[in-house]
């Protein structure tokens, strides 16, 4: 997780990006659940339930594999 967020190493260097590039992306856009809720879900005028877009432990298909 530290490597992914830029606290260790420099994973973005090979792509020409700054060290904390993914941290900056997440800080600016939120995570998937927050984006869905704001634009499609209960926080929007559409009020669409997540359904299969929910996390696996909430009855959906969303599963994040481990980052190594």
Please provide a written account of the structure:
With 68 residues, the protein is mainly α. It starts with a helix and ends in a 29-residue tail after the last helix. The protein has one domain (2-57). It has three helices and no strands.
- Give the fraction of residues assigned to helices: 25-40%
Order of helices and strands: HHH
Distance between the termini: 8 Å
Strand content: under 5%
Rounded to an integer in angstroms, the radius of gyration calculated over CA atoms is: 15 Å
For the record, the count of structural domains works out to 1
What structural category characterises the helix and strand content? mainly alpha
E-strand count:
0
Number of helices: 3
> How would you characterize the largest beta sheet?
none
Contiguous runs where pLDDT drops below 50 for at least 5 residues: none
Q: What is the approximate shape?
A: elongated
